[in-house]
Amino acid sequence: MVIYDLPNILLVYMYMYKKWCLFLCLFEKIKVKKDEDEPQKLSKKKLKKMTRLSVAQLKQLVSRPDVVEMHDVTAQDPRLLVHLKATRNTVPVPRHWCFKRKYLQGKRGIEKPPFELPDYIKATGIMEMREALAEKVEDLLKFF
Fold first, then answer.
1. Could you list the residue range(s) of the whole structural domain that residue 7 is in?
2. pTM surpassing 0.70?
3. DSSP class per residue in 91-112
4. What are phi and psi of 29, to 5 degrees?
5. Is 26 helix (H, G, I), strand (E, B) or coil?
6. pLDDT for 56-84, tens place per residue?
7. Any idea what DSSP says for residue 62?
8. How far apart are CA 39 and CA 21, in angstroms?
9. Which of 98, 95, 66, 99 is nearest to 82 (CA)?
């Protein structure tokens, strides 16, 4: 990694994904040592985090800020992602894709009450007829 110190901007060249990439960082975010012969070494993770846009900055850059979500800034190309999300006739990805807990796993302990017929159907007496039929079937099955 080669670091050049300029007045307000720090240019960092890094070999990543078999291509040379250029990262522009504000000088205030990275503190460079005063020794010219030994530049400060940053991990790739820290460098990516420092070059990442904030949600507010991304909202200012795009035409439709209402589609920007907090996890959009971690994409490889956040502007392209927001542009694709803002395109007409696109279907949004369900919100539960980024949750650690699987979809509907929180409802595991909740038991559903058994289904009850509405009052107007109960008034016809269908429940008694079904119970009588079930008893007859049980009696017939005892013989076999």
1. 1-51
2. no
3. PPPPGGGG-SSPTTGGGTTPPP
4. -75, -30
5. strand
6. 999 999 999 999 999 899 999 999 999 99
7. S
8. 18
9. 66
